[in-house]
Every structure is written in structure tokens, then in C-alpha cells.
Amino acid sequence: MKKSIIAIAIAGLVLVGCDQASHDSAKESAASVKATTTQVKDDVVSTTDTALNSTKQALTDSADAVSDTADKVADKAAEVKNNVADSSDAAVESSKQAVSDSAAAVENKVSELKDNAANATTDAVDASKDAASDAVNSATDMKDAAVDKTKAATNDAVDMINKSVDSAEKKVTDLTN
């Protein structure tokens, strides 16, 4: 029995040793798991921080890009607005100039027409004066011609009468002699 007790005691010691080794091994495993878990946790935190930082940087870059684009759009809109304003101002000035030019052209044309009308009136008055003068002259000439013809006809008639009288006297004288 001693041998059995010794064997049992050895077996118990082995079991206790195994149990202790198992317990030590479990502690070491737990410590190892804890260390691994801590490492995994640290890696997850580090990866999460890196991802978060990358996301923050991407968001910052996107925000900067959007802000730059918005600034460029605002600058372009202001430039277009200024160009439109400048174009509008130029168009207004051009319109004013066109209206002014048109008004001047109309005024010049009215003045030209007025001068032409005055000249035409003067020419008509002169032509009327000339026509009246020509009519008077023609009438005078016709009167003078009529008078001259009348005088000539009268002279011719007187001459004929004188010749007739002379001829009659001659016949009478010839008959009486």
C-alpha cells in the first residue's frame, strides 16, 4: 500500500503540478491574451485614429476644395456681374450716343428742309416776280407792237387815201383838161 500511496501521492503531485502548470499556463495565456487584446485594442485605436485623421483630412481637403470652388464661382460671378454692368453701362452710353446722334441728324435734316423751303419760297417769289415782270414786258411789247401795227396800218391807209386822192385829182384834172 505504501507503493500505492506513494504512487497516488506522486500522481497527486503530478496532478497538482499539472494543475499548477495548467494554472500558470492559463495565467500566462490570460496575460498573453490580455497583452494581445491590449495590442489589438491599441492597433484598433491606432487604426481608428489614422482612419479618423484621414477622414478629417479628407473632409478638410473637400471643404477647402468646395470653398475654393465657391470662391472661384463667386469671383467669376462678380466678374460676370461687373462685365454685365460694364456692358450695360457701355450699352447705355451707346444708346445715349445713338439718340444724341439721331436727334442731331433730325435737327440737321429739319434745318436743311427749312433752308430748302426758304430757298424754294424765295425762288418761287423771284419766279413770280420774273413771270409778272415778263408778263408786263410782254404786254407792253404787245401793246407797242399793236400800236406800231396800228400806226403802220394807219399810215398805209393814209398813204392809200392820199394816193387815191392824188389819183382822183389827176383823173379829174385829166378830164377837165
Attribute tags:
1 helix; 177 residues; rod-shaped; single chain
How would you summarize the topology of this molecule?
Layout: H1 2-176
Characterize the structure shown.
With 177 residues, the chain is mainly alpha-helical. Helices cover 99% and strands 0% of the residues. The chain has one helix spanning 2-176. The mean pLDDT is 74.
Order of helices and strands: H
Can you tell me the residue ranges where pLDDT is under 50 for at least 5 consecutive residues? none
The helix/strand class is mainly alpha
Q: What characteristic shape results from the CA principal axes?
A: rod-shaped
End-to-end CA span: 247 Å
Task: Write down how many β-strands occur, each being a DSSP E stretch of 2 or more residues.
Answer: 0
Largest sheet report: none
* Helix share, percent: over 70%
Mean pLDDT: 74
- Rg calculated over all Cα atoms: 73 Å
Would you summarize the structure shown here?
The chain is about 100% helix and about 0% strand. The protein has one helix at about 1-175. The longest helix has about 180 residues, at about 1-175.
